[in-house]
Amino acid sequence: TREKDWWRGAVIYQIYPRSYQDSNGDGIGDLLGIVQRLPYIASLGVDAIWISPFFTSPMKDFGYDVSDYCDVDPMFGHLSDFDALIDTAHQYGVKVLIDLVLSHTSDQHPWFKESRSSHDNDKANWYVWADAKPDGTPPNNWLSIFGGSAWQWDAGRMQYFLHNFLTSQPDLNFHEPQVQAALLDVAEFWLQRGVDGFRLDTINFYTHDAELRDNPPLAPERRTAKTAPAVNPYNWQEHIYDKSRPENLVFLRKLRAVMEPHNAAAVGEVGDEQRGLEILGEYTKGNDLMHMCYAFELLSGDTPSPEYIKEVMDNVAEAAPDGWACWAYSNHDVVRHMTRWNLSPAGARAFTTLMMCLRGSACIYQGEELGLPEAELAFEDLQDPYGIQFWPDFKGRDGCRTPMVWERSNHHGGFSNSGQTWLPVSADHLPLAVAQSEEEPGALLHHYRRAIAFRHAHQALKTGEMVDMRVEDTCLIFTRKNDEEELFCAFNLSDQPATLETPKGDWYQVGSELNSASPMEDGKLHLGPWQPAIMLRE
Ligand code: TEU
Ligand code: CA
């Protein structure tokens, strides 16, 4: 029996299976490797794991190009290994979310092979096919995120097909009812196998404009650093026809209905820099869409200032009053936040504690609990086609995908006993390996465990309201409360000390294990660099 609302305020640990633990010495992580490491995962105190795709795949986008939704790629193991993973995880009290990539398949999927074989086969309409313009050019101006036109010519059908990502990731046609039915069957297949929910890849790309209208150019005044990094022309268009279409919600309601009897939860990935948090509100509204949406606001850019975080939280409250965000600082697509934000150990601890105090759920990406920086890779080491395309201005996603480090002195950091691993283990990571961190009382790993435990000890942090947010000096201040408890949270997000007024009323310090400051007798709160103050109302 599963408690229906377990996902609210949950802490989710993201595993990139290629890089977690190799159990059979081929240099690539696998499902049995994850099983071996479950005691460690459980020791973090997380509620759930999200496993990036392990389905049958030619691995052009490292599993985000699926050729069989209902099987495990031999590289990662077998379905029986997955069953063992679910059983073991559940014995440890850890739930399992799998990563369904439903917007597109691999071009090696039998559906696509059939679809491209003729104009009148049973699946002819399962992908987005369109004729060339009279001059032979693509049907419209849509662009691929990974570079170039979103249309790829197929000499067999003498037509173009749509792909939002790689040319080997053709876009499924969600306007075709049979496609929707087949994808709902995929969800049912995994729910029957016992998964607790899904991370749903790129849900706002499911449907495209059936009339294939051109996207308008992005108005010059909207070309901010965030919406238009010079490196990718994708960002010069207003993406109103190729993604975030209203029809997506119709399919997501059906998917939610399939999940409901299983008490399963979904985290939807809705990346839309141009619409920001508004889209999170749209996709989590009510009780029949996504349970949570993954928020990108803390995944890019510079170290977030208290003002920026307040603005983001205000925007969520406004755009998604009954919605639910899932916060993350790092994942398998972005530069690790230790490097991106150039954090000191104290800064990393402060942001970890902050994440555990924010309203929403939280995703931790493997290795961030060790304080791993982005790995430096040479061009020759690159595996990610996105990085190879845009090198050196954009270095791609390999630097956050290098193998997890378990033991400093072990071959490949304990990740694998093969001769060569699919990406090299970073030498900079070895001193931070799990075994070394366990022995080192000051290691970030212990702080992650304490911060996660602290969140679990205070229900108000998981599901309570978040009110009275303000910025004072260099501090972000807010209150979390439910009917039982009220927590005052202040975070000094700076390497300089700060002084605040003590909140009115009777409060006592909690979270001393998180370096929370104690109220001073002069009625002021003195916060050291990167120090929080967390207090509980008497
Ligand atoms: O990423 C989607 C993705 O690239 C978006 O976040 C994108 O940056 C944004 O929408 C731009 O507007 C997911 C996976 O996380 C990634 O690893 C895959 O490569 C991709 O989908 C394709 O499946
Ligand atoms: Ca392996």
UniProtKB/TrEMBL annotation:
It comes from Celeribacter baekdonensis B30. Gene3D superfamilies: Glycosidases (3.20.20.80), Golgi alpha-mannosidase II (2.60.40.1180), Oligo-1,6-glucosidase, Domain 2 (3.90.400.10). Belongs to the glycosyl hydrolase 13 family. The keyword Hydrolase applies. It comes from the Bacteria. InterPro entries: GH (IPR017853), GH13_cat_dom (IPR006047), Glyco_hydro_b (IPR013780), O16G_dom_2 (IPR045857). This is Alpha-glucosidase. Keywords: Glycosidase, Hydrolase. GO terms for molecular function: alpha-amylase activity. The keyword Signal does not apply. Residues 14-401 form the Glycosyl hydrolase family 13 catalytic domain.
